């Protein structure tokens, strides 16, 4: 059995980002840049004030108690069009352009005004409370590199740089097919031996959160013709995810069926818990990941393998999952040869430190406990017992 890290590396090998496309910046959230975003202007576009007050010449304020003649004002959007000379000042506001001749700001708390005379109670040096032209970024500066997923911050800086459009990678299209005679659609009558198909919707949500487009396909029943029919449903897909049926039971037909329609298997079985029967291969050149049918195992494998693969297909270079650290809130037993992922709650202790409290039951069929979990505690193969208060590695589930 492969280790988790080796399996993930083999899945990521050879994955190429989808083709670029141009979208409006308003539709760019969650997309991955295919080209660097370069500033189209200077920000700020000129020297501007960082405070409300008076634009002055620093040379006039080598001492306190200086009296200056007020010659105008410079509100935001309406710059003063004159020049500040010796002994003069201009009323100015946060974000307003500093007029010619001025090189410092006296904040309003340190000045008093009577008619057109302003008396200062501070000294000033050149640049005081002035944001210089291009201080944030200059025209032609790279503000967002290629391969960066756009979030609210990226959208904001691209808009500030005057970009109405952005070049991003196309969202990967991911087919999701669950397998098994026992599955019925949520909401349908559930007969004897049947269960609601939770996995397809759960994985579709993971896929969508990873910036891809899920394509939910019909359930493949436990008969070979259903699996062979998949060959007619693959057009336009960038990846196929199968759920269940990849083990070695009498009715586990997925591997054989996929081989008949062109799958070249890479590996099957991972030294992990939950999620041992993970399958990976290529289906006529398209990447394929087969996750277990057990819902918790399907989620864990989706988090550890499917999401990073989709991040790579979407154009990201640094892919997850991100690993954090926390304080172990309960003792945990020694681990066997499989890397384990324990569902856990997260809390803050009295000192504000993040604490991970594993559930006492870790049955991989208990999906409800997954909804109550904020993290997965990672236990290395053959790890010795760990005690409450020790540090542990976690994958957070509460910040998606």
Strand order of the largest sheet: 7-4-6-5-9-8
Overall geometry? elongated
Major sheet attributes: 6 strands, mixed
Termini gap: 30 Å
Query: How many strands?
Result: 26
Catalogue the unreliable spans: none
Strand proportion, as a percent range, falls in 25-35%
- Structural category is alpha/beta
Percent range of helical residues: 10-25%
Query: Over all CA atoms, what is the radius of gyration?
Result: 30 Å
Number of helices: 7
Averaged pLDDT, please?
A: 94
Explain the layout of strands and helices:
Elements: H1 4-12, E1 20-24, E2 37-38, E3 48-49, E4 53-56, E5 67-74, E6 88-92, E7 104-107, E8 111-114, E9 117-120, E10 130-131, E11 142-144, H2 152-160, E12 165-169, E13 173-178, E14 183-184, E15 195-196, H3 198-209, E16 213-216, H4 224-228, E17 239-243, H5 254-260, E18 263-268, E19 272-273, E20 279-283, E21 286-291, H6 295-313, E22 324-328, E23 339-348, E24 354-358, H7 367-371, E25 375-379, E26 391-396
Parallel strand pairs: 5-6, 13-16, 13-17, 14-15, 17-21, 19-23, 22-24
Antiparallel strand pairs: 1-12, 2-11, 3-10, 4-6, 4-7, 5-9, 8-9, 18-20, 20-21, 22-26, 23-24, 23-25, 25-26
Protein name: Molybdopterin molybdenumtransferase
Function: Catalyzes the insertion of molybdate into adenylated molybdopterin with the concomitant release of AMP.
Pfam families: MoCF_biosynth (PF00994), MoeA_C (PF03454), MoeA_N (PF03453)
